Amino acid sequence: QAQLVESGGGGVQAGDSLRLSCAGSGRTFGSYAMGWFRQAPRKEREFVAAVNWSGGTTYYSDSVKGRFTISRDNAINTVYLQMNNLKPEDTAVYYCAAQNYIGTRQDLLQTERQYDHWGQGTQVTVSS
Q1: Contact 94, 83 (CB under 8 A)
Q2: pLDDT (0 to 100) of residue 14
Q3: How big is the CA angle at 57 (ends 21 and 40), to the nearest 5 degrees?
Q4: Which backbone phi and psi does 49 adopt, to 5 degrees?
Q5: Residue 7, beta-bridge partner list
Q6: Three-class SS of residue 124?
Q7: What is the pLDDT of residue 104?
């Protein structure tokens, strides 16, 4: 069973960059699709980015496309979210999630309820 631990959050200025990491445990990490979601104060959790098991297929929300990059290194059971040109509206708790799925369907990779393993979250605060 996958266990996930996020790191790399913090407080930055608008225009800065951050890289979030999510370390997974378990020998089957490489067979899991991985996603990043975020939840801002008083808002519902929303999809940010997802990557399939191999790293060859990625999806992004429109709000982060072109600024964020999701990637993974299965050799060390880690998925990353590189966030560039951060904006105040990116302020949120960011969650890493995993689902035991080896396909590339966008609807499945972007849907929160498809993920059955979640990290504890890491706070990202962007000041203007």
Answers
A1: no
A2: 98
A3: 45
A4: -160, 155
A5: 21
A6: strand
A7: 96
Find out whether 33 and 109 touch, Cβ atoms under 8 Å.
yes
Buried-state track 82-117, b at ≥16 Cβ within 10 A, e below 16: ebeebeeebbbbbbbbbbebeebeeebbbeeebbeb
Could you tell me the sign of the dihedral formed by the alpha carbons of 47, 75, 99, 21, in that order? Answer: negative
Mean of pLDDT values over 87-91: 98
Tens of pLDDT, residue by residue over 19-48, are: 999 999 877 788 899 999 999 999 999 999
- Beta-bridged to residue 69, according to DSSP, are 82
pLDDT given at position 36 = 98
Tokens for 37, please give them. 């979601």
CA dihedral 16, 51, 63, 89 (to 10 degrees): -50
